[in-house]
Amino acid sequence: MARQPDFHEHNQDAASTRWSPAVALAGFIAFCLLVAAVDGVFTQGGVRDWYPSLTKPPGTPPNWVFPVVWTTLYIMIGVAGWLLWRRRAWSTLRLWGWQILINALWNPIFFGLHQIGIALIVIMALLALIFRCIQRFKAIDALAAWLFVPYAVWVCYATYLNVGFWWLN
């Protein structure tokens, strides 16, 4: 006689098998790119009208670099989330959700509200969350952890830029 899964196991299986893995992967990536698109709405006006007036720290890249890098990173963030979903790592997936939320706050604060100091606090919180994610992901799925390493490197660089903007302006 086959063992019947208990109620909790059954609900976990149903939650993660409702969609095919390919559809779920597309959903995670689409969600992250949607976050990027919404953030882009806040960025456009600030990049066009306010950002050019700022004194920029050394090493600030040209504006075209940011969407290229962030699009790549958002795809990697989506894949990492999908890998956690596949492993049914629900509490770690919640941590992933918190980092994407904190990430989404930075652009409206920096470019929309022009609050460089508050944006600095947000990006430092984001950086701490990213490192915590890498630590937690490593125990669940090494690839998910590695997918967050370029994200961590870029956000370290973005934190340097944010400090520079805060200091110089």
Characterization of this structure:
With 169 residues, this protein is an all-alpha fold. It has one domain (20-168): Up-down Bundle (Ferritin). The chain is built from 6 helices and no strands. The protein has helices spanning 7-17, 21-50, 65-86, 90-112, 116-140, 142-168. α2 runs parallel beside α4 (90-112) and α3 (65-86) runs antiparallel to α6 (142-168). The longest helix has 30 residues, at 21-50. It starts with 6 loop residues before the first helix and ends with a helix. The model is unreliable at 2-14 (pLDDT under 50).
Q: Could you provide a short overview of the structure?
A:
With 169 residues, the protein is mainly alpha-helical. The chain has helices at 7-17, 21-50, 65-86, 90-112, 116-140, 142-168.
Structure characteristics:
about 170 residues; mainly alpha; Ferritin; elongated; disordered N terminus; TspO_MBR; CrtK protein; transmembrane helix; TspO/MBR-related_sf; membrane
Q: Helix and strand layout, with pairings?
A:
Blueprint: H1 7-17, H2 21-50, H3 65-86, H4 90-112, H5 116-140, H6 142-168
Helix pairs in contact: 2-3, 2-4, 3-4, 3-6, 4-5, 5-6
